[in-house]
Amino acid sequence: MTEPVLSVCDLQIEFALRRGTLRAIDGVSFDIAKGEVLGVVGESGAGKSVTGLAVIGLIDPPGRIAGGEIYLSGLRIDHLPPEDLRRIRGKRIGMIFQDPLTSLNPLYRIGDQIVETIRTHTSLSEQAARKRAIDLLAEVGIPAPDKRIDGYPHEFSGGMRQRVVIALAICVEPELIIADEPTTALDVSVQAQIISLIKRLGRDHGTAVMLVTHDMGVIAETSDRVAVMYSGRIVEIGPVQDVIQNPLHPYAKGLMGAIPTLAGEDKRLVQIPGSMPRLSAIPQGCSFNPRCAFAFDRCRIERPEPIRHGTQAVACHLYDAGVEDSAA
Amino acid sequence: MSDTVVPHKASSSAPRAGMTSAPWLARLGASDVFYSFRRSRLTMAAAAVTLLFFLIAIFAPLLAVQNPFDPAQLQLMNSRIAPLWTADGQSPFLLGTDEQGRDVFSAILYGLRISLTVGLLGVLFSGTLGIVLGLIAGYFGGAVDSLIMRIADVQLTFPAILIALLINGVVKSVFGNRLDAMSMLAVLVVAIGLSFWVQYARTVRGSVMVEKNKDYVAAAQLIGLPAPVIMLRHVLPNTMGPVLVIATINLALAVITEATLSFLGSGMPDTMPSLGTLIRIGNNYLFAGEWWIVAFPGIALAALILSINLLGDWLRDALNPKLR
Amino acid sequence: MLAFTLHRAIQAIGVMIAVGIIAFSMFRFAGDPVNQIVSLDTPPAERAAVRQSLGLDDPVIVQFARYVGNAAQFKFGVSYQFRQPVTALLMERMPATLELATCATMLAMVFGILMGVYSALRRDTLLAKAFQAISLIGISLPTFLIGILLIYLFAVVLGWLPSFGRGEVVRIGWWTTGLLTVSGLKALIMPSVTLGLFQMTLIMRLVRAEMLEVLRTDYIRFARARGLTTRAIHFGHALKNTLVPVITVAGLQFGSVIAFAIITETVFQWPGMGLLFVQAVQNVDIPIMAAYLLFVSLIFVTINFVVDILYTVVDPRLRSTISGAA
Questions:
Q1: Which of A128, C272, C278, C312 registers the highest number of CB atoms within 10 A of its CB?
Q2: Which chain A positions have a beta carbon within 8 Å of C320's beta carbon?
Q3: What is the reported pTM?
Q4: Domains of chain C, with CATH numbers?
Q5: What pLDDT, in 10s, does the model give residues A124-174?
Q6: Nearest to A95 by CA among A168, A33, A26, A10
Q7: Which of B266, B283, B310 sits opposite C282 (nearest CB)?
C-alpha cells in the first residue's frame, strides 16, 4: 500500500481558557488514502471540526496543538512555520466550510475570488486563471459560468454558493479536501446534489476527502470509511458498511440505531440516554461510561485504547480479549 | 490583590432573584464581570479616582480654604498669586489664585460640585425622559412609536452641543439675559437632558419590543395588570443593563457638555463658576504667563472625564461579552 | 434605485420642514422681534406699525409660509446685533468654516484609518496600546481643552504658530481661502488638529472594532483556508469590508465636524460661522441662530442623502435588494 495522503497520529488539541485548560482532542489517530473518503461523525462538540481545522492549521488561539503529528503525503505539517503552512492551505489541502452563505466575501465578485486563489498558488496569468475559473464553475455545475463568474455572492442561491465554495476549494487541485458539514446549512433537496458532487470530484481527481458531519445518512452515502468521534476521541473507525451493519462500540450502536431506514418502518428509533459531557467535566475512565448500558467497573477507572477487531478498530473494554467472553 | 466586597454581594443575590428580576443583574453578578474588574487595574484606578472626585465634591466646604462663590471672602490683594511651590507662592493658596483673588484649589472643589451636579441631574433628566419615551414607544407601538422615533432620528443627526446651545439661546431670549446662577444651572440641566435622551429611548424601545412578546408579559396582561405596572415592574428591569452603560458614558458627556457651554460663555456665570467657567476665565490669562488659572481646572476636568469614561468602557465590555 | 432615491429625498425634505418649523418658532416666539427693532421709548402706535410691516399680525401659518419662502431664497432677515442681512454674514464666514472642517476631516480620516488598521492587526503591540490610550484621551479631553493646550504649547511657549485668526487670506470671487498663503496655512494647523482629533479617535476606534469583527467572519476564515497571503487577506478582503461602514460614518460625521467647529472656532477666534453662532447665542441674536440651524441642517440632510446613495453604490448587496424592492 502506498503512503496515505493524510496521516494523523495521536493528535492532542488544548484550549487554554481562563478557568483552566480544556482538552478538546485527546489522542486522535487516523489515515486517509488517495481517493478515499473518510467520514467523521459525532455529536456537535465531539471535536470533528476542530480536528479538520487542526489539519489545515487554522486553530486559533487560545486553542493549540498540544501533541501528536500530522503528515500530508509523508510531510509533517503540524510544526511548519505559518508561511509554509499558508502555501499548503488552498494548494494541497482544500477546505469547505459549513455555511456557504457566509464563506464568500460579499463585496467581491466570485470570479475575482477564484482567480485570486488560483493566482496565489500558481503562476497562471490573469486570463488563464479566469479561463480556469470558468471551467471550474462549469465542473461544479454552475450554469452559464462565463456569465455567472462576474456575479456577486448574494446573486447565488445557497446550493449554488456552496458549489462556488467547492470550486474554490478544488481550484488548485489539492490532494486533500476537508469538508466541514458541507450540507448542513442547505435544503435537503440540494444536499444530495452537493454530496454527489463532492463524491464525483474526489473520484475524478483522486482526491482524498475528510468529510465531517453529524449526519450518518450523508456518511453512508459518500464515505469509504467512517470514524465515530465522542468527547474528543475516536471511539470506532472502520469501513463504512461494516460500521453501519455491525457497529461495535456501544455509542456507535446507538448512533446507527438512530438512523431511520426506509425498509424497516416498524423498527423504533433507538435513542441514547443522556448527553455528551462538557469538556470541562469529562468523566474518568471511558468518557461514555455514564451513558453506556454495558459499562462495568473497569470503564469507570481505565480509559480504553483502540483495539483492532476485524476490519474495524474500537476503543472499548468490551472488546479487550480478556473481557470479551464474559461480556459478549 | 484584595477581593472587592461588591461582587460577592451581587453574585450571592443573583440566584435568589426571581423570574421578574433583571437578567443583567445576574450577569453583573456572574464572576465574568468582576473577574474583568479585578483583573483591570486601570478600571480599579478609574473607579477610585471617580469616587475621590465625588467625595471631594461632597466635602468641598470642609476642604476649601475659602468659599469662592462668596465675593466677601475674595480679596483683590491676593489676586494672581502663583502656586505654592513656585518662588512667588503664598500660603494658603496651594494652586495659586486668579485675578479676583479666588483660590484656584477652592474654586476647583466648588466647581467640581457644580459640574457633577449638572452632570448627574442632566443624566437623571435625560435618562428619565428617554426611558419613559422609549417605554411608551416600544409598548404601544404604532403612530406614537413612529412619532417619537422620528423625532429621535432627526435629533440624533445633530450634535448634542448644538442642541444644548440652541436651547440655551432660546431660554435666554425668553427670559432675557438676567438669569441668576441657580436658574442657569437649571437651564443647563434641561438643555443637557433634552440633548441626550435619544440613546436611552432607542435602547429601551428595542428591549421593550423584544420583551413584550415574551410569555411572562402576556401572562401579566392576562391577570389584568395595567400597562404602566407591567412596563415598570417587568419590562423595565430587563433594560437596565444597557441603560446603566449609557448613563455612565453619558455622565462623562454631560460633564463635557456643561464644561463646553460654560467655556463658550453660555453656561455657569463667573459668580458661580463650574470647571468650564474657570477654564474660560483662566484662558484669558494664558498669554500673561499665569498658566495655573487654566491648567489646574483643566487637569481636574480631564481626569474626571477620563475616569468616568474608563468606567463606562469597562462596564460596556463587561455587560456585553460579544464585544470582547 | 429611483424609488429608493425618491423615498430618501422625501424623507430629507420632511426633516428640513421639521427644522424649518423649529427655526420659525424660535424666530417668531422666542422674544418679540419688534422689541429688537424699536427702542424702549418707541410709542405703541409706531410699534404697531413695525409689527404690521413685519407681517406679525398675519395668521401664523401665513407667517410660516412666508418664512419658508424667504428661507428658500436664502433670506433670513437682519441680524439684531450687526444690523446686516444674516445671509451676507453667513456667506462671509462660510469659507473659513468649510476649509477648517475639510482639513480636519481629512486629517481624521487618514490618521484614523491608519491607526485603526494598525491597532486591529497588531493588537498586542506597544504602539497599538499607545493608540488605544490616545483614543481614550481624545474622547475624554474636551475639544476646548485640547485647543488651549495646543495654544499654550505652540503659541505661548514655542511661538511657532499663531494662536488666533486665519492669517492672510486670498479672495477668489466671493470665497476667501487661507490655503494659498504661508500664514494662512500656519493658522490652519492647530484648529484642524483640534477639530479633527475627536473624529480621528472615533474613526480609529470604529476601524479597529469593525476590522476585528470582519477578521472573525467566515469569509476571512475561508480566505485563510484558501491559503491567501496575509497581506491579501488583511488589506484586500478585510480592509475593503471594514471601510464600507467607516466611510459612511466618516461622511455622516462631516456635518458634526461643522457643528463642533463652534467650539474650535471660539478657542482660536476663527472667523467662521460657528464663532458667529456662539456670539449670536450670547447676544440672543435669533435670526442668526435660526439661519445657522437651517444651514447646518441643510448640510446634514444633504450629507445623509448623499451617503445613503453612495452606500448602495459601494455595497452590491444593498444595490440589488433596493432594486429588487423598487
A1: C272
A2: 152, 154-155
A3: 0.76
A4: 34-73 (no CATH), 87-299 (1.10.3720.10)
A5: 899 999 999 998 898 888 888 888 999 888 888 888 888 898 888 888 888
A6: A168
A7: B266
